[in-house]
Amino acid sequence: MVELFTVGETIRDTKAPGGPIQEQWEARRFGAKLINPANRRKLSVIIVGTGLAGASAAATLGEAGYQVKSFCYQDSPRRAHSIAAQGGINAAKDYRNDGDSIRRLFYDTVKGGDYRSRESNVYRLAEVSSAIIDQCVAQGVPFARDYGGLLDTRSFGGVQVSRTFYARGQTGQQLLLGAYQALERQVAAGTVEVHTRHEMLDLIVIDGKARGIVVRDMVTGALETHVADAVVLASGGYSNVYHLSTNAVGCNTTATWRAHRKGALFANPCFTQIHPTCIPVSGEHQSKLTLMSESLRNDGRIWVPKEAGDGRDPREIPDGDRDYYLERQYPAFGNLVPRDVASRAAKNQCDAGRGVGPGGRGVYLDFADATARLGRAAIEEKYGNLFDMYHKITDEDPYQVPMRIYPAVHYTMGGLWVDYDLESSIPGLFVVGEANFSDHGANRLGASALMQGLADGYFILPNTINDYFVKNPSTEAIDASHPEAVKAVDAVRARINTFLTINGARSVDSFHKELGAIVWEYCGMERNAEGLQHALGLIGALRDEFWTNVKVTGANEELNQTLERAGRVADFFELAELMCIDAFHRLESCGSHFRTESQTDDGEALRVDDDFAYVAAWEFTGDNSPPKLRKESLEYHNVKLTQRSYK
Amino acid sequence: MNVTLRIWRQHDRHAAGRMVSYGVESISPDMSFLEMLDVLNEQLTAAGDDPVAFDNDCREGICGMCSLVINGIAHGPEELTASCQLYMRHFTDGDTIDIEPWRSPSFPILRDLIVDRSAFDRIIQAGGYISAPTGAAPDAAAMLVPKKDADRAFDAATCIGCGACVAACPNGSAMLFTGAKATHLGALPQGQLERNSRALAMVNQHDAEGFGGCTEIGECTAVCPVGIPLDMISRLNGDVLSALRDNTT
Ligand SMILES: Cc1cc2nc3c(=O)[nH]c(=O)nc-3n(C[C@H](O)[C@H](O)[C@H](O)COP(=O)(O)OP(=O)(O)OC[C@H]3O[C@@H](n4cnc5c(N)ncnc54)[C@H](O)[C@@H]3O)c2cc1C
Ligand code: SF4
Ligand code: FES
Known about the structure:
The complex is a heterodimer. Chain A is an alpha/beta fold. Chain A is built from 17 helices and 23 strands. In chain A, strands 1-23-22-12-18 form a 5-stranded mixed β-sheet. Among the domains of chain A are: 275-410, Flavocytochrome C3, Chain A, domain 1 (Alpha-Beta Complex), CATH 3.90.700; 483-614, Fumarate reductase/succinate dehydrogenase flavoprotein-like, C-terminal domain (Methane Monooxygenase Hydroxylase, Chain G, domain 1, Up-down Bundle). In chain A, helix 10 (368-374) packs antiparallel against helix 11 (376-394). Chain A has helices at 24-31, 37-40, 52-64, 102-112, 119-139, 171-189, 254-261, 325-329, 339-351, 368-374, 376-394, 449-471, 483-502, 508-522, 529-549, 561-585, 609-612; strands at 6-7, 44-48, 67-71, 89-90, 153-154, 164-165, 192-195, 198-206, 209-217, 223-227, 230-233, 266-267, 272-278, 301-305, 322-323, 363-366, 403-412, 415-416, 429-431, 506-507, 550-551, 614-619, 628-633. The radius of gyration of chain A is 24 Å and the shape is globular. Chain B has 2 domains: 3-110, Ubiquitin-like (UB roll), CATH 3.10.20.30; 118-248, Alpha-helical ferredoxin (Fumarate Reductase Iron-sulfur Protein, Chain B, domain 2, Orthogonal Bundle). Chain B has helices spanning 33-46, 118-127, 147-157, 164-168, 175-186, 195-208, 219-223, 231-248, and strands at residues 3-10, 17-24, 69-70, 73-74, 96-100, 109-111, 114-115. A 5-stranded mixed β-sheet of chain B has the order 2-1-5-3-4. In chain B, helix 2 packs antiparallel against helix 6 and helix 6 (195-208) packs across helix 8 (231-248). The N and C termini of chain B lie far apart (66 Å). Chains A and B meet through helix 3, helix 5, helix 6, helix 11 and helix 12 of A and helix 1, helix 2 and helix 3 of B. Residues 56-59, 61-66, 82-84, 160 of chain B line the site of FE2/S2 (inorganic) cluster. Chain A: It holds the Pfam family Succ_DH_flav_C. Chain A: Its EC number is 1.3.5.1. Chain A: Residues 45-450 form the FAD-dependent oxidoreductase 2 FAD-binding domain.
């Protein structure tokens, strides 16, 4: 067999300053070179993405006086996928006096990530978390308040403190509108230029530094070159490699994947989070999945019929014939076990034939007991909007019949590798938000993605990018005529022409669906060597078919949504292969990554710290050439590694 | 179920458009309206025709991207529902369904069912924010906000910026959208300082974009997928009047 990958040099310098962890960020900020306001005006930054990470970075860098160019594929920056986040955002405010602290948030996040994240980054995230809430409140984000007028919080995602700030079930929407409005304020001030309906299709690297991007105007098809002194990617996660996920249908990996091909390391691509409570697939036509907030597990009880194939109406199945499997297997945590554990347990029940609903891919989430205990009004008050959403989608009334839920892909912890400054392995290319791999290790805790996106954009990047500018003055004025820029545009144009001239027999979507099904089956909730190798064969064959048999109608010089999707799916193919290789090489179970070969006697995940306590950062070495593994070893000086147990 | 669709086809901003009929068969009532359009597009692609272009992203009613006039109603027949949250079970086998883009001179059609709503962004640029540069914020607990004000601000802030209100308004007014933003920020203590000037600046931009005046017809709130109420426009008008008064004294 050909080698799947090779091993390269270890990554030694993450730029994290040494010293006590609680002094590192202060030290880094002090050490970073400053730029006076008059000189900032001469420096330009490209920011791809207007979600929480990109919009907050663009607004803040604009306020600081840099010339910012911001890009998104939607028709307005306000529509970035961050808008859909429901549950809340964590911060170590300790307004509840319940023992929360920076240290505890740090500890929970490292442990929740199953000890596969970088200590220094996570500590800093916890440190700046408080300032995020201050910033958002000042902008007018209408967080939930109690009757005394104080900010309300709730506890979320299996932690023991109440540190999650929220705005009903629409926290992401409210936070994003805050950042979007700050961004538009800078547009009016003339510091930020926003290019909507523009898709980044390549990165321009000159003399080893990121100096620009190639974008396609999605209305006219024109290919444009934009150059700057630095480039920031805030383009979100790659859940849609699975085709079905809770992400917006346009979410893609193109920006990050193109940068990877230009030299940026891609870290831990196999760490993908599957959320346990989503509305199940209803048929072949399914185009996306909808999340039902995690909070439902506080009152709902999860069960399946004991007897496989029991087709009775769930209300007619007596308690004795039901298996409340989480309560049975995990008496200490019951229905509140972490996401990865709950998801896998549901899969196991369905694999054993006890699943319910279409195709047997579903389990019940039942509120009958909670309704009897608390009354319907209390349930309505807490979960009304979720119940309504469920009702709208499924046409079933969850006040009457138990909800049916099934796990779905939700978030990607993997992403472009960044150092402590959020700079990728290409100098001058910074990566923020879900697009980077940074803070969540092998498993993200609820309400921490919004925190990370805003931490990166409001507070971290604006304090590190200046250091890059001072140390890397752009000596050469560059424009679209630079040979590297011309080369990049030509390559993009050639690729588009290829899509348009294949003129095969299958639609882009049919390929995306088939690819998604393969990745979901073999690189989803459970993985093993045999399955992953099999998947690599299937993906390779499908990819070859794609490049000879896809049908992309229309032309480039027009608004062409099929062409847009073709480019995204082509990149998903390549990423899917890297995900499988990463999953194959990591012969341990950790967080979201469950290898059937690595489990304890009672079927729980078995981490192998001696062999795998590292970040797997992959280097692109060319088409049809195996990727190179670059390890960043993870050292823990402030937390003790333990096996997670929820029994 | 089988349905006949009559869809507005227009190649680009400058081309003439027309309604074109298509048949779609074997539709499941559990499909969303957009999934039904996906099926049509697969069909068109297989036949070598151009698929119908339509805006969408989150497909769960929150991003504000989807924007279809269905049988003459912005976002279709169901109340409090964005186009993407509409399901085929609300239609009947054999139905003929008309699908058109938002119609407004301020929202030029870019292709088929896709329009340019950048005017909304420019209204926000004009003043739809609280000036709070990063880093200058006091502790979040330093300011108490009465729950009823926070709730009112939240209700206004749920506007998804879809533009259905404009599409539904016989005057082509965007006052519901603008009023929702003025109410969101104006209901909060943080938003008081710029309250009147914000309202005035947004309304001036609203008019400059060519949106029509509001005569309180109420079609906007009837189609609004999140139920922004009409009184948010009154709130906006009040702030604008105060601003004009401030400017003259
Ligand atoms: C349903 C749902 C609920 C969630 N709930 C929570 C929650 O309660 N709490 C929490 O902490 N997290 C939650 N998350 C996760 C969280 O919402 C995301 O991780 C986070 O919002 C990502 O933000 P981002 O800024 O990194 O990227 P995104 O918001 O995804 O933005 C990406 C941006 O990049 C642009 N873009 C992408 N590719 C290109 C390209 N090639 N060219 C140009 N532009 C491009 C897009 O236009 C967009 O502007 C949830 C996620 C989902 C799916
Ligand atoms: S007010 Fe309602 S209809 Fe108008 S843009 Fe906002 S959400 Fe859409
Ligand atoms: S697609 Fe996002 S609101 Fe309809």
